């Protein structure tokens, strides 16, 4: 790959499933003469096992069970310039799930608790233990962060959620902080009291959030119901403009105006939800400011950010198993930004300017200089808005801190799931939603080097057409069954992480999603690898539903 006439990545290698296994960023060579390299390994199910920044373990249900992160922390010694030097910190992050597959716990076990005074390990990775509780409809009822410690004196944070009666809309969030004394180790020598704060939320009749944080965020919307402005306490009002594809292409406040350019689905399916560049200028005089351009590697699991040009600085992007950015490396081969893995993205990124110390979870206080690099990508298809703390997600906005979901109901209706505000079914480390809609057709190149597979997904509800004799519900043969047998739809949620998924495009998204779900309820009469395979079933459903959505929209137009 070339960028500005120079090699961007070299020695790029792939496995038979279309997954990258290694490459080098030559521009990160610095004075050493050799660039930083990436090396990736996968298991027989196509799941990522190791990368240059982490190692991954998976359970029998195909869910991520542990991530061994390699993060940076400050050392006691300082550089001649007075900045803290840094060293790698190994962190074993264990994930737990409830019976519905929703994330229920995250625990961090660092390989050391030693940090230079006055910092403790939680200032790098956040609370050591997090637990999440859910109701039967996928609404979070409580989040509890313990073993918090740290220099901010908060020992634990319990966040309780109250819903509006008869809805999935959050009415209020109550934060109860247990205040402890700062110390060594886990950072708390005992409780000295509690502090309680309640955040209230206001919604309109259509299920769109119009204000929260006690009035600190107020939303304005255009005629299509999209957010057109947000008033944020302390940073004023930011106005937003969207195009006909619902892409947010412009935002403006009293300091600067930014224009964003997106990819094209015709060139690469699904790229329309990913920003290619953001170009800024001063609002007062139109003077050009620092711009950002993102570069992606096409992979079997979708666009992978591999480099970013921020102003005049080119940086390598290191991603995780979902193609979520976790680290940036500069031309000198030094880490310049990191985002530790947390349950729902609630832990802020940090930079080496303050020795990787980051803002405290649940606190509005900022760490001076910790955001020297303005890098906005978060989960796939999301962009962080510094002015609000929200993640823009094409059709909607995601709040990782308080609501831990979307700020408006799913535009595709109940076909996206019974809970129209939930983000990827409560498992953001297992699924992605680049459009904020989640209706896709997915391709997997083979189970254990056997049969390839095609299936459909509607907001995390994934299923494919299989021969009824499939062992363990997955195609293993024999040929006799593949040629002619009874068929059945089987859940394919465990195959998403190793598949390439593209968004289904149609004239009416809500109609199409309902149609795809109905199509599964009317399956082919039998399974045949040549005439009624998983590919035939998925493509027939897609083509039929897309065509019907356009006809339905046309009929609606005649009826007006």
Automatic annotation (TrEMBL):
InterPro entries per record: Rhs_assc_core (IPR022385), T6SS_VgrG/RHS (IPR050708)
Domain of life of the source: Bacteria
PANTHER family in the cross-refs: PROTEIN RHSA-RELATED, PTHR32305
Protein name: RHS repeat-associated protein
Originating organism: Ottowia testudinis
